[in-house]
Structure formats: C-alpha cells, structure tokens
Amino acid sequence: MTDTTNTTNTTDTTDATDATDASDSGQAAEPGGARGADSRTPTRRSLIGWGGAGLALGAAAAGGAVAMTRSGDDTEPTAAAAGAAVAFHGTNQAGIATPVQDRLHFAAFDVKTTDRAAFVQLLKDWTEAARRMTAGHAVGEGAYGGLAEAPPDDTGEALGLKPSRLTLTIGFGPSLFDKFDLADRRPEALVDLPKFAGDNLDGNRSGGDLCVQACADDPQVAVHAIRNLARIGFGKVVIRWSQLGFGKTSSTTPEAQTPRNLMGFKDGTRNIAGTETDRLKKFVWVEEKDGPAWMVGGSYLVARRIRMNIETWDRTSLQEQEDIFGRDKGEGAPVGKAKERDKPFLKAMKPDAHVRLAHPDTNAGATLLRRGYSFTDGTDGLGRLDAGLFFLAYQRDVRKGFIPVQRSLATDALNEYIQHVGSAVFAVPPGVRDKDDWWGRALFSTDPKDSKVSTESKSSTNSTNSTNSKEA
Predict the structure, then answer these.
(1) 354, 22 Cβ separation under 8 angstroms
(2) What is the pLDDT of residue 251?
(3) Where are the strands (E) in 173-236, listed by range?
(4) For the chain, which residues score pLDDT lower than 50?
(5) Residues 446-467 pLDDT 10s
(6) Which helix (H) or strand (E) holds 302?
(7) Which among 303, 217, 177, 181 has a CA at the least distance from the CA of 15?
(8) pLDDT of the residue at 255
(9) Using CA atoms, how far apart are residues 258 and 255, in angstroms rounded to an integer?
(10) Nearest-5° angle of CA 451, CA 457, CA 462?
(11) Which residue among 126, 242, 435, 443 sits deepest, i.e. has the most Cβ atoms within 10 Å of its Cβ?
C-alpha cells in the first residue's frame, strides 16, 4: 500500500481524492494527446432506415454498437450543485489528478480482433461514448425511442442519473504492443513487473491488453460506463477481469478528511494533491525527454489487487497494529508526533513499519500518486471475507516509482496481513484534446504530424487546469 496523487479538473471542485502515507507525488509535465479528425459515422437510424431490408444491418450494428454523438452535443455540460460533470477534454486524462470519486469500476480487456483498422475505429467509438457519458448523456441515440426491432444504443440503467463526476481513463498494457505491429512503439518505462516477495498472483485477475478505469460518485454510473464500452467492443475486445471498488483509500485534495482503509487506518496522508502542479510534473506526467513522443502528457498505472487477512488483523492488539503502520489509529499521527500531518520521524518507528519503508526518504524520493479503493467480494468459501485494497498508483516511470517502493516493502510487517493476488501495468496516454481527437491517436495514427501533436502542448505546461475545465 503506497502513496500517489491525481490531477484532473472538474466543474465541481469540492471533492477529495485517493492517497497513502508512503509515497509522494510529482509535477505535471504538460503535453497533450494528439489531434486529429475522427471519421464521423452516420447514425444507426440513418443507416438502418425503416424498411425490412435494414434489419439485418441493424443486427450487425448492434453487435458493434457504434456510438456517435448527435450534432450540438459537444457543448459544455451544465454543472449541477451535486453530481457535476468532469471535463473530458484536456492535456492529461481525467481520473488521474482529478479529485477522487467515491466509487470505482475497473476493467481490463483482451483484444480479440487482428484488424488494426477495426481496433482503431473501436478506440474512436469508445472515445465518443466516453465523451457523452462523462457529460451525462446517453450513448448514441439512447436507450429508447429508436428502432423497435433493434437493440438500443444505450443500456439505460443510468437514465435520470446525474453525471456524478464520472471519469473514464484508458491505458494500454504491455501485451497490446505484441499486436498490430506496435513492438517498436512500446515505451521503455512500460516494463513487465518483476515478481515481488509474497506475490500470489492469479492470472485470471492480472494483465490485460488495455484497461478502462471508471470513477464516479454513483456506483451505477460507473458500472453503466464499463458495461456500455464492453457492449460497443463486442467481437473486438472482451473483459479479462474487472473490479468494483468503494470507499476511496486516499485523497488528492489535501483539505479533505483523509479516508481510512479496511484496516481502520488513515491512508494517503502524504499523497500528491491535484493542485500540486510541481509534484505532478516531477512524479506523474511523462515529459518529452522521457519518450516516446506519443506518451508525453500521459502517465503509467500500476494496479494491484491486495487481499487483506481481515479476520487475523481484527484479532491483533491495537499496539501491534499501530507499530505495524507507524501511525496511531485515532488521529493518524506518526510515531512520537501529535497530529496526522506532522512530519514523521522515521527512525522513531520500528524498522519494519509500513510508513517507514514506503516513505520517499527511504526510497530515494520515489513518489506515487495513489487512487486506491476498498473492495469486498463476498467470502472465500471458508467463511473469510474476500476483501482488501484495490491499489491504483500513477507515476512518471514505473522503474523509478512502484518497483523500488515495492521492493523496499519486502520486509514490511504488514505483509503478514496482506497478499497481492492480482497485478497489471498500463501506459496511460495523454488526454483527448478536442472533439476531433480520440484515445490513443498519437500511438495508432499513421500520419507523421500526429506524432508531433503530443509535444505541441509543452509550451502550455501551466495551463492544464484551464484546458481540462473548458469542455466536457
């Protein structure tokens, strides 16, 4: 369990984000996603028409579920007092430095198509659907009112619900670069994670060609988003594994109350805040000198499913619990200190205390931006809760972030009570700049000028917030 922070702008800035005690954040290097013209697809209704001859085409369109916006729907959404919309367009993807929402639905996908053009079209269709859903609109022509003989474009369970600060963040896994002749475009920082001490990874809960992280304040809104993307991707991608999360375990808004994990301890006291542009730039956003060009303005995500041995922990004395973490359980103050945010004196803690081992001072300054969530998935068949932390950490380079911190935690006293059972790493590209841009354009486009777009925003390093807040 480590520390990180996230910086994405919303129309509602009153919420908090995820973090942990052990790591720091960075500064935002500001490039953006590549620009380009999205080929507009006619609406399903115009393709199918109302004749019987169109029904077969309607069935095929339902399988592919192409979702495009109607004219005039790219306007900035009206922010309600509650459930406001988070801007979708921006230099960086929303859902990283954005104030952390209350709920999560995370899904990793495997790519099934070998047709590069079909996959690129899927990314365009997903981008358009994400643009609509984050603004509070239905996908395509909606859940009702269309052709009665064909499935609707939207599944409908979010009808009448507010946007709930929904963010959708996409990432590309190492295995994707083995497809579509992308091997030479794989970033050096997108390394396969080594085996760490105590790992007991389940292959069915690990890896993936790509991922989508859906965060929202309403769980139904988050589930609706993943469900519709999976439906649009039918025949091209399939969900490999997914995870629901509740109760954010760290925050990117320092003025907010620090959340607690399922062990009852405050988590993320020193997490990077979404307002700390210097730390974001230093620790989270990929810069031009880091390479490759298509990743500038992006970040790298490590996702780990960490199961907690809840029953054993609940029988452990309070003193031992506090010694294991290096903080008191009530206030959250580090050993020997009075307040939660007092600077910890690491040598006052036991050598195997979690905070001491995860702290940047122990790891040559390595700092993560964390957006983790608690989870509980019933029981394991032996009467024990299948519960714990779904750890999400963003960083500028996995080799300088998560890997050294996790190696340092090999002797963590907390390891007696936790086990890493799922793992994945993804390259998270920069944000979608405008209505003509799409997820991963700089990576997949064959137009030479597209590879340069991601570096064009270098001069606008200090404008991330205003860029992300202009249009959703």
Answers:
(1) yes
(2) 81
(3) 210-216
(4) 2-81, 453-472
(5) 665 555 544 444 434 334 433 3
(6) strand 299-308
(7) 217
(8) 74
(9) 9
(10) 155
(11) 443
Q: Distance between CA atoms of 10 and 76, rounded to whole angstroms?
A: 12
Q: What is the pLDDT of residues 353-392, one digit of tens each?
A: 999 999 999 999 999 999 999 999 999 989 999 999 999 9
Q: Which residues contact 91 (CB under 8 A, 6 or more apart)?
A: 30, 31, 32, 33, 297, 430, 431, 433, 457, 460, 463, 464, 467, 468
Q: How far is CA 96 from CA 18, 151, 359, in A?
A: 10, 34, 21
Query: From CA 419, how far away is CA 306, in angstroms rounded?
Result: 6
Where b means 16+ CB within 10 Å and e means fewer, 282-304 reads bbbbbbeebebbbbbbbbbbbbb
- Report the amino acid identity of residue 39: S
Q: Which residues contact 446 (CB under 8 A, 6 or more apart)?
A: none
φ/ψ of residue 158, rounded to 5: -100, 5
Residue 448 is predicted with a pLDDT of 55
Could you check whether the bond before residue 77 is cis, i.e. omega within 30 degrees of 0?
no
Is there a contact between 380 and 386 (Cβ–Cβ < 8 Å)? yes
User: Are residues 109 and 237 in contact, defined by beta-carbon separation less than 8 angstroms?
Assistant: yes
Are the CB atoms for 302 and 398 separated by under 8 Å?
yes
- Closest listed residue to residue 453, CA positions, set 255, 288, 237, 243: 288
388 residue type, one letter = G
* Burial letters 240-274, b for 16+ CB under 10 A, else e: bbbbbbebbbbbbbbebebbbbbbebbbbbbbbbb
Helical residues (DSSP H) of 205-289, grouped into ranges: 219-232, 277-283
In the numeric block, which tokens belong to residue 341?
A: 């945010």
DSSP letter for each residue of 367-424: --EE--EEEEEEE-SSS-EEEEEEEEEEES-TTTTHHHHHHHGGG-GGGGTEEEEEEE
End-to-end distance of the chain based on CA atoms, in angstroms?
33
Token output for 463 = 């404008």
Which residues face 243 on adjacent strands? Answer: 106
Q: And the tokens for 314?
A: 């609940």
Which of 330, 340, 335 is closest to 350 using CA atoms? 335
Reported pTM:
0.80
pLDDT at 257: 83
C-alpha 24/C-alpha 370 separation (Å) is 9
Per DSSP, helices labelled H in 72-146 are 116-134
* pLDDT of res. 458: 43
| Residue 59: predicted pLDDT | 36
| Residue 204: exposure state from Cβ atoms within 10 A (0-12, 13-18, ≥19) | exposed
- Cβ contacts of 184 within 8 Å, gap of 6 or more: none
Q: What is the DSSP letter of 306?
A: E
